[in-house]
């Protein structure tokens, strides 16, 4: 067996998986709390990438150092996407609380179409080049061809933010309130938890992580356009389901699992059918273990 | 005063929100920045007025919720659906619509006929999906896959075996129906969102296989030069063939409307509705859940197959790009916007979603954004759809039976 190839694919899958996990958290948190598949989440990721590009472009023209550009691009993209996520929830989902199951889903699809066309209108529908913001580290030299500095930054940034999120959920008062709301919203409200605030926070956190992912992936791939959100969204969503939708550690595990599976399947079987493997995995999982790797089976009330 | 303050805050917030995307446009290759400050002013003024309308509409919606049952009863149905229940109105109206739709290709240009063909195709697709989503209550996000199966069965049969349109039409429906049943088997146990996700995954798998199986399907470039439908060996010009297809799809739409309407009142249709209302109670009443679900998928997807065959015949060229998830989402939107379970609703919904973007071409740049906002607004302010679905009421007129029931 060719171990070099095996490790190369594994590292590729790791980068991919951390990104999926980062975006999947947004899906899983929203689903855990209001049982809504937020189809517009992928578009938030795309908006993050665009905001990052604009910041990088403006700062690049004024000649800032690359490191400052990267930092500012991430910070501003995260802030803006948090604001977008917050506003989106207020406009498209909040008036629909308590409506039939399908209405928020359609509203989300409408929202995602809206954001795509907003970008087409205000920016462009073409592919845009994204400047390389992460310079090569010296010490990465021996392995740079398979795992460059950008990959390292992606893996580290997503691990750190996921760790921070886990600690936040576990130890802060807000995190506790979130867990309570996810378990039983009505009961949490009776106990004095402001559910509206919790839902807004959920959208803000999810959108920030998606924005981080958007900026990092765009500097990795070097290009972006208005469609990138859809594909990333569907993949991240698959990851959320694999891990057990509603569970945050599940989203991380599901993301990694999906990234590695895709990478190995593309390497050893056929790279054309890479996405088919992802979706087949989704279908197989849903049929045999619909609650995902870490999810609980839903209790059927009669 | 309160309203003014809120509107100002809203417009400032949106000016902040849209600032980077609307105002700045960078060119990273030539290192130039384009500042478009006027856009900021447009957003501010626009949002200021929209926020007034938004609050007014929300207040109105809230007020409606507190109306009593008796006052809402008459208002609840749209005048259109009330009018359609009066035979004196409905019959002449239906006759007029039928006459108009038959005469239509003679009145309008080829381009407009084309739009109406796609409108009618969406009516058929929407009615098919309505059986699954509206009547049986199974959330289904992969309708485009079966549309694709229909289209590709005709395209492949035509390309490799030279089979004509009229033979392919029933075959396309059959293949889609078989595909629907095949999908239904593994997902029998799932419901709600999980079902939606599996069907989404299935739809994407079908599309990706079509895209990557290049030796059979031509891959992303698709299949071209598909034969147009034949008319007893008569050679038709392109414009005439278009009109001919219009009549075929009109006939199909009418057949679909009639059969779906009949289906809803049939034994199977009632079983489907029982499944929607309560799956467990439905099983307890002795309805075979497996059969009913298979039937729902089979009956719904077959129409997508028929529509697919006609679509392939109309465009004479198909590729996987026509059958993306967005297509499924749009068909689902037709069903939900029109009012789930209502056939008239589906027709209005497709008119809204297909004809509106076409006729908004004057604002071509803005049409998709108007369309998307309409989807969100519709859900926020009228989530039950244009035509609210209403259950069928059953009466017992025989006084003896009523008394027996009481005792």
The strand count of chain B comes to 2
Major beta-sheet overview of chain A: 2 strands, antiparallel
Shape of chain B: globular
**In sequence order, what are the helices and strands of chain B, one letter per element?**
HEEHHHHHHHHHHHHHHHHH
Q: Taking all residues together, what is the mean pLDDT of chain B? A: 80
The radius of gyration over CA of chain A amounts to 19 Å
Number of helices of chain B: 18
Secondary-structure element pattern of chain A, one letter each: HHHHEHHHHEHHH
* Mean of residue pLDDT values of chain A: 85
The coarse silhouette of chain A is globular
**Helix coverage percent of chain A:** over 70%
Largest interface: A-B, 67 and 64 residues
Summarize the structure.
The complex is a heterodimer of chains A (about 300) and B (about 400). Chain A has helices at about 5-35, 40-60, 65-95, 100-120, 150-170, 175-185, 185-190, 195-220, 230-245, 250-270, 275-290; strands at about 130, 225.
Helices and strands, with pairings:
The complex is a heterodimer of chains A (302) and B (407).
Chain A: H1 3-34, H2 41-61, H3 66-93, H4 102-122, E1 128-129, H5 149-171, H6 173-183, H7 185-190, H8 195-221, E2 223-224, H9 228-243, H10 248-268, H11 274-288
Antiparallel strand pairs in A: 1-2
Helix pairs in contact in A: 1-5, 1-8, 1-9, 1-10, 2-3, 2-4, 2-8, 2-9, 3-8, 5-6, 5-8, 6-8, 9-10, 9-11, 10-11
Chain B: H1 2-23, E1 24-27, E2 32-35, H2 37-65, H3 69-75, H4 79-85, H5 87-107, H6 110-135, H7 143-161, H8 165-184, H9 192-212, H10 214-217, H11 238-265, H12 267-277, H13 279-284, H14 289-315, H15 325-338, H16 343-359, H17 367-381, H18 399-406
Antiparallel strand pairs in B: 1-2
Give a structural overview.
The complex is a heterodimer of chains A (302) and B (407). Chain A has 302 residues and is mainly alpha-helical. Chain A is built from eleven helices and two strands, in the order ααααβααααβααα. Chain A has helices at residues 3-34, 41-61, 66-93, 102-122, 149-171, 173-183, 185-190, 195-221, 228-243, 248-268, 274-288; strands at residues 128-129, 223-224. In chain A, strands 1-2 form a two-stranded antiparallel ribbon. The longest helix of chain A has 32 residues, at 3-34. Chain A is globular. Chain B is mostly helical. Chain B is 74% helix and 2% strand. Chain B has helices spanning 2-23, 37-65, 69-75, 79-85, 87-107, 110-135, 143-161, 165-184, 192-212, 214-217, 238-265, 267-277, 279-284, 289-315, 325-338, 343-359, 367-381, 399-406, and strands at 24-27, 32-35. Chain B has a two-stranded antiparallel ribbon with strand order 1-2. In chain B, β1 and β2 form a beta hairpin. The radius of gyration of chain B is 25 Å and the shape is globular. The mean pLDDT of chain B is 80. Classes of the chains: A mainly alpha (302), B mainly alpha (407). At the A-B interface, α2, α3, α4, β1 and α9 of A face α1, β1, α2, α9 and α15 of B.
């Amino acid at each position: 067996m060719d171990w070099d190839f095996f490790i190369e694919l594994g590292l590729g899958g790791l980068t991919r998986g951390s990104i999926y996990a980062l975006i999947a958290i947004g899906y899983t948190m929203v689903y855990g709390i209001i049982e809504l598949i937020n189809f517009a989440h992928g578009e938030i990721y795309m908006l993050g990438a665009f905001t990052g590009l604009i910041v990088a472009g403006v700062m690049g023209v004024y000649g800032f150092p690359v490191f400052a550009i990267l930092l500012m691009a991430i910070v501003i993209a995260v802030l803006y996407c948090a604001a977008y996520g917050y506003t989106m929830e207020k406009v498209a989902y909040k008036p629909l609380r308590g409506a039939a199951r399908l209405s928020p889903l359609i509203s989300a699809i409408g929202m995602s179409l809206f954001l795509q066309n907003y970008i087409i209108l205000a920016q462009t529908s073409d592919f845009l080049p994204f400047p390389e913001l992460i310079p090569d580290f010296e010490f990465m030299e021996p392995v740079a061809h398979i795992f460059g500095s950008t990959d390292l930054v992606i893996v580290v940034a997503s691990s750190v933010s996921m760790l921070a999120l886990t600690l936040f959920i576990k130890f802060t008062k807000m995190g506790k309130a979130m867990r309570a709301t996810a378990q039983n919203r009505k009961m949490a409200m009776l106990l004095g938890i402001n559910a509206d605030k919790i839902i807004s926070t959920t959208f803000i956190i999810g959108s920030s992580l998606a924005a981080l992912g958007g900026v990092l992936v765009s500097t990795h791939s070097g290009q972006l356009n208005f469609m990138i959100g859809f594909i990333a969204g569907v993949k991240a969503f698959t990851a959320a389901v694999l891990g057990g939708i509603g569970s945050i550690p599940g989203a991380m595990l599901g993301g990694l699992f999906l990234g590695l599976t895709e990478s190995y399947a593309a390497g050893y079987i056929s790279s054309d059918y890479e996405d088919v493997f992802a979706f087949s995995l989704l279908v197989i999982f849903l049929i045999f273990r619909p609650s995902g790797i870490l999810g609980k089976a839903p209790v059927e009330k009669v | 005063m309160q309203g003014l303050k809120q509107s100002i805050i809203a417009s400032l917030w949106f000016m902040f929100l849209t600032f980077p995307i609307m105002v700045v446009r960078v060119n990273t290759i030539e290192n130039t920045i384009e500042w478009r400050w006027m856009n900021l002013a447009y957003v501010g003024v626009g949002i200021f007025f929209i926020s007034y309308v938004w609050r007014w509409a929300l207040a109105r919606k809230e007020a409606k919720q507190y109306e009593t049952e008796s006052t809402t009863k008459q208002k609840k149905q749209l005048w259109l659906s009330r009018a359609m229940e009066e035979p004196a109105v409905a019959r002449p109206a239906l006759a007029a619509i039928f006459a108009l739709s038959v005469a239509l290709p003679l009145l309008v240009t080829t381009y407009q006929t084309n739009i109406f063909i796609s409108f009618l195709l969406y009516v058929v697709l929407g009615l098919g999906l309505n059986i699954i989503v509206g009547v049986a209550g199974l959330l289904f996000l992969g309708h485009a896959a079966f549309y694709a199966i229909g289209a590709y069965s005709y395209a492949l049969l035509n390309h490799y075996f030279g089979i004509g349109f009229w033979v392919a039409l029933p075959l396309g429906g059959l293949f889609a129906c078989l595909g629907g049943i095949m999908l239904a088997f593994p997902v029998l146990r799932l419901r709600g969102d999980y079902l939606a996700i599996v069907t989404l995954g299935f739809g994407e798998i079908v599309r990706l296989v079509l895209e990557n199986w290049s030796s059979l399907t031509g891959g992303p470039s698709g299949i071209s030069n598909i034969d147009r439908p034949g008319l007893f060996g008569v050679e038709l010009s392109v414009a005439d063939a278009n009109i001919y297809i219009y009549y075929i799809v009109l006939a199909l739409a009418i057949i679909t409307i009639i059969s779906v309407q009949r289906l809803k009142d049939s034994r199977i249709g009632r079983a489907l509705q029982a499944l929607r209302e309560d799956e467990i109670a439905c099983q307890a009443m002795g309805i075979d859940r497996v059969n009913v679900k298979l039937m729902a998928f089979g009956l719904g997807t077959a129409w997508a197959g028929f529509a697919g065959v006609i679509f392939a015949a109309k465009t004479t060229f198909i590729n996987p790009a026509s059958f993306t998830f967005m297509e499924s989402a749009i068909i689902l939107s037709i069903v939900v916007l029109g009012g789930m379970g209502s056939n008239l609703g589906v027709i209005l919904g497709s008119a809204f979603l297909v004809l509106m973007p076409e006729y908004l071409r004057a604002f071509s740049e803005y049409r998709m954004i108007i369309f998307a906002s309409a989807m969100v607004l519709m859900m926020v302010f009228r989530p039950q759809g244009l035509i609210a679905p209403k259950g069928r009421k059953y009466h017992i007129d025989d006084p003896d039976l009523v008394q027996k029931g009481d005792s």
